[in-house]
Structures are given as C-alpha cells and as structure tokens.
Design a protein that fits this description.
282 residues; alpha/beta; Rossmann fold; 2 domains; two-stranded antiparallel ribbon; 26% helix; 26% strand
C-alpha cells in the first residue's frame, strides 16, 4: 500500500536473458536396429553406415525451451556441443531454429568420456563463455541415457539445478519450473543463474525456417581445444573417466515358435491351454 492508501501491485520486470544450451550429436535413435553394431573389443558403438547422426531429441527440447524464453524475454542463446568430427549441418541445427552462436569443443581428447569427464569439460567451457543466466540441457542423451551430465555441470559450477522440466517461465531474476514427477508435476521456483534439464513433455521443437537455415550457414562455430578451456588432455574424455566400462555388448535374443494344432478350434484351444499350463504361464 502506498502513502495515499492505494494498493501497490508488484510489477514484473522483464530483462533479456543469456542462455547456454548443451547439445550432443548422436547416432539417430530412429535408425533401423539391424544397422546397430558394437565393437566389443574397443567397447564402443560403431556408427551405422549411411545413417547420418542427429542432435539428441531431448537436446532439441532444450533448444526449444531456450527459444521460448528468448521469444518472451529477448536475449542471446549460445549453443555448446562437444565431440569429434562434428557435422556442421547437424550441430548447426539449433542456429537454424533461432539460436545466436555456437561453441564447439572439438578434439580427439574429448571422446570416450563418462558423465564426470564430460560434465567437467562442458562446465569449464561454460566458465569461458562467461555471462549467462540459464543453462539448458536435455534430460538425458539418446545414446547412453545416463541423465547425469546436466546435474554434474550444475554441481561443478555450484548452481541450483532443476531436472526434467516441462515448462519454464522466467521473470524478476527467477525461473518458475514445472518439473515432471511419476504421477504429475510439481512447481519449483529457482533463482538465476541456474541449470535446468528439459524433458520431452515440454512439447516438440519447432522446425527450422528457410530464413533460419540461410542465416545459420553464415555463422561460423567457435572451436575450442582442451587448452582453450584450461584443461589437460588427461583430465577429459576417456583419460579423465571416473567410471570403468567393463563390457559393452549386444544381448542375444533367442526365441522359438511352436504351432499348436487340433482337429477343431476347440481342441486347439484346449491344447494351447495345456501347453501354457505346462510352461507355468497359467
């Protein structure tokens, strides 16, 4: 209430928001299962021939979340990706959707990492990028499905973290997040800067526009090596792993089919019931 006895309403202050979105180039999860191969000796997945990689679908949800905040608030979106032999037409997709710039951690030393070494490299890159209000990650990568890197980045940077978000609203230096739970959702308010992992419940990512695709072609990625982010090669990638991968293999699925016959449909039904009882399925 002001000095004149009138009720004073708190006004939302909208300021531009600087956002970093972490995205990962992965084997297309929609690739035919027959094309999937594992190098058991090298403990790695062999990229299928003739199937181009894609941005992990959950990371596309994270890009969409960032774009919605930018649409509402204004600001800048920086895309951050890590790997080796990153296809520019793949990792530039967020730019064609509306992101502003892209930083690539591209060096052989970044490969073969676990959640810890990957989170460490990305966290150091975030520090080098500098000013940010929000970091968005997909809830998990579509290849390993660990769902740990986003939380790891937040821990290293000492940021509050909200996982599996389905909606994010930003105002007055805070984010109000609807977080997916097993039986619905909960609403969490968090002060910025913060890290949020985004789930597919947010909704499908927008399609790139022709104008966006043309603009993305003109944007050159900023490429950093381990030295550029203040790390030694033995601190990242396979050399910096905390977890030891004992074995990577494709499980063998065996099955057999037995035809149950009878002189009539009724007899076939009885024979089927007897077989199921014999197998202790009834």
């Amino acid at each position: 209430m002001d000095s004149g006895g009138n009720i004073a309403h708190k006004k939302e202050v909208n300021v531009t928001v600087n956002i970093i979105v972490c995205v990962k180039q992965v084997i297309d999860p929609e690739a035919p299962p027959s094309s999937f191969k594992v190098d058991e000796a090298g403990k790695k997945v062999v990229p299928p021939s003739g199937v181009p990689p894609v941005i992990s679908p959950f990371d596309e949800n994270a890009v969409e979340a960032a774009l919605r905040v930018k649409d509402a608030q204004g600001g800048k979106i920086t895309v951050l990706s890590m790997g080796v032999n990153l296809l520019r037409e793949v990792v530039k997709k967020p730019l064609s959707m509306g992101a502003d710039e892209i930083v690539l951690l591209e060096d052989e030393a970044f490969t073969g990492g676990d959640s810890w070494s990957n989170a460490r490299a990305l966290a150091m890159a975030v520090k080098k990028i500098g000013e940010y209000d929000l970091i968005f990650c997909g809830r998990q990568a579509a290849d390993w499905d660990d769902g740990q890197v986003g939380s790891g980045i937040a821990e290293i940077l000492e940021l509050p973290c909200v996982t599996v978000a389905r909606k994010i609203d930003v105002a007055n230096g805070k984010a109000v997040v609807e977080r997916v739970t097993a039986d619905g959702y909960e609403v969490i308010e968090v002060s910025l800067p913060a890290l949020i992992t985004v789930s597919n419940e947010l909704g499908e990512a927008r399609y790139p526009t022709i104008k966006g695709i043309m603009a993305a072609k003109k944007i050159e990625p900023l490429v950093w090596t381990p030295a550029d982010i203040g790390l030694e090669p033995d601190q990242i990638g396979a050399a910096g792993r905390k977890m030891n991968l004992e074995k990577l293999y494709q499980p063998v699925h065996e099955g057999k089919c037995e035809l149950i016959e009878g002189e009539s449909p009724e007899e076939a039904g009885v024979n089927l019931a007897l077989k199921l009882r014999e197998a202790k399925l009834l």
